[in-house]
Amino acid sequence: MSRWSPRNAAEIAALVAHHPLAWVVSGTPSFHATPLPLVADLAADGSIAALIGHFALANPQVEALRQQPRALLLFQGAQGYISPELVTQPQWAPTWNYAVARFEVDVAFSPQDNGEALDRLIAHMEGDRPDRWTVAKMGERYEPMSRHIIAFRATVLSCEATFKLGQDERPESLAQILAGHPDAGLAAAMREANQPLSRT
Q: Is 199 domain-assigned?
């Protein structure tokens, strides 16, 4: 396990939950790549067992995945440039910090689950807002539109994640970066990654 490895399964699940837009990449019979928001199904240990989403039925990647269901799902979390101007340490070099996760999956289409896939995605994105949107608000427009999508479940075969978020910095340099970086989201991710936490 490297210093850039996530410390536990919860960190990977949080990345996917907070940054749900993934590239779905497949390579047979030709390369396809589609950006789709996905929702995770968690295993008992907190790791991601599967990812749920839907394609536009007209997307040619649907037929490609029917022929060969293996795919890569690529998620990107907080990321950004770290300038030497933030750090007083002499000869400190610039770097790029980021959190990413790569899943190898088998994709199984399930048109009978279109409604559930939509409901889960919308519920995840709308969160706990008091007047959150639901598909019921579409009224009669929902049924004809739902016929143009197809739900899928992507079962996880393997997962690789890299959280390069300042774990190698001197404490004083890290403090300066956190205090001065203009991207609050990246600074928050760096702060979280450098909190004491036992690896599980």
A: no
Rounded Cα–Cα distance for residues 6 and 200 (Å) = 10
Q: What is the CATH number of the domain that holds 49?
A: 2.30.110.10
Cα–Cα distance, 67 to 61 (Å, whole number): 10
**Any domain includes 3:** no
pLDDT grade for 199, boundaries at 50, 70 and 90: very low
Taking a C-beta distance cutoff of 8 angstroms, is the pair 22, 73 a contact? Answer: yes
Structure-block tokens of residue 94: 């610039």
Tokens 């049924």 -> residue: 143
User: 70-85 pLDDT, tens per residue?
Assistant: 999 999 999 999 999 9
Convert the pLDDT of each residue in 132-145 to its tens digit.
Answer: 998 888 898 988 88
Q: Which of 79, 76, 82 is nearest to 178 (CA)?
A: 82
Range of the structural domain that residue 132 is part of? 9-193
Instruction: Examine residue 2 and state whether it is found in any structural domain, yes or no.
Output: no
Indicate the number of domains in the chain: 1
Instruction: Say whether pTM exceeds 0.90.
Output: yes
Q: How far apart are CA 159 and CA 12, in angstroms?
A: 9
Is residue 31, in this structure, part of any structural domain at all?
yes
Distance CA 49, CA 156 (A): 5
